[in-house]
Amino acid sequence: MFTQRFLKDKRGVNLAPSERAALENAISDVRQVPARTILLRAGQPVNASTLLVEGIMSRYIDDRNGLRQLVAVHVPGDFVDLHAFPLKVLEHDVATMTASTVAIIPHAALEDVLSEFPAMNRKLWFATLIDAAIHRAWLFRMGRLDAVGKVAHFLCETNARMVSAGLSDGRRFALDLTQADLAEICGLTTVHINRVLRQLRDEGLCVFRASVVELLDPERLSRRGQFDDGYLYNERAASAVSML
C-alpha cells in the first residue's frame, strides 16, 4: 500500500509492480509517531531507513547551546534517512514536526531487494540526488531571498512536493505546521512570519490559515519567491500548475 501510493511516479521514480511488492515486503514495521519526537540522533548507528507515510518530518543540527538549525523538511513519500543506508551514521538528527506515520525498512532487507532488483539502485540513488537538489535550493532560499521571498519559495516548493504525493490539487494543501514552525524553517522570528503571511494574503498571493495553505495566485507567488520547480524533476507538479 505505502510504496504503491507514494513511490510510484514519485520524483521521477517509476517502480515496476514487482519492485513495489518487494519494497512493501521489506517493511518490518509501521509506526504512529507523536509530533516533536526524535527518531534518530546524530552519531548513532543506523540499521534501517524510514519512509514517511503521513505527516511532516525534519532533519536538523544543534548548535553548542542546543538551538537547532533545520536543514531539511520531509513530506509524505520521502525516504527520510535513505542517506544512512550507505553511511550507517548520520551527522544530523531526524525528528517529526507533526504526528506522523512511518514505515521502517531494515537495511538488511533493503540490500536483499536491491540484489534481486539491481535497477532499483539507480532509482533510490535518484531519490537521494533530489534530496541534494532540494538542499541546494534551501541554501539559495536562506541566503539570497528576503523574508517574503523565503516564505513564498518554501510554500511553492511544498505545494509541488505535495502534488507529487497526491496531497495537493496545485492550489490547496494541508500543512499542519504552526507559524513558529514556518518561522524556523525560513529563518525568521514568529513576529516577522506573521507580518509576512499577512503581506502575502493582502497581495492576493497566498493564505495560510487553520493548517491549510491556499495559493491564490500560484504564478505570481512563484515569481515572488523566485521558484522554479525544475530541481524537483516533478512532471506531475509542473502539469498541475500549468493547468491552473
3D architecture notes:
The protein is α+β, with helices and mostly antiparallel strands and 244 residues long. It has two domains: 2-131, Jelly Rolls (Sandwich); 145-242, Orthogonal Bundle (Arc Repressor Mutant, subunit A), CATH 1.10.10. Helices cover 45% and strands 20% of the residues. It contains ten helices and ten strands. It has helices spanning 2-6, 17-26, 84-87, 107-116, 119-144, 147-164, 179-186, 190-202, 218-224, 235-242; strands at residues 29-33, 38-40, 48-54, 57-62, 68-74, 93-96, 100-106, 172-174, 206-209, 212-215. A four-stranded antiparallel β-sheet has the order 2-6-4-5. A three-stranded antiparallel β-sheet has the order 1-7-3. Helix 6 (147-164) crosses helix 9 (218-224), helix 6 crosses helix 10 (235-242) and helix 7 (179-186) crosses helix 8. The longest helix is centred in the middle third of the chain and has 26 residues, at 119-144. It is globular and about 55 Å long. 36% of the residues are buried. Mean pLDDT is 91; it is low at 236-244.
Tell me about the largest β-sheet.
4 strands, antiparallel
Q: What's the CATH class label of the largest domain?
A: Mainly Beta
Mean pLDDT: 91
Uncertain spans, ≥5 residues at pLDDT below 50?
236-244
Question: Judging by the overall fold, what is the CATH architecture of the largest domain?
Answer: Sandwich
Number of E strands? 10
- Can you tell me the CATH superfamily of the largest domain? Jelly Rolls
Looking at the structure, the CATH topology of the largest domain is Jelly Rolls
Overall body shape? globular
Q: End-to-end span in angstroms?
A: 30 Å
Rg to the nearest angstrom? Answer: 18 Å
| Count of separate structural domains | 2
Class inferred from helices and paired strands: alpha+beta
Order of strands, widest sheet: 2-6-4-5
Number of contiguous helices:
10
Range of helix content: 40-55%
Strand portion: 15-25%
Written as H for each helix and E for each strand, in order along the chain, the element string is HHEEEEEHEEHHHEHHEEHH
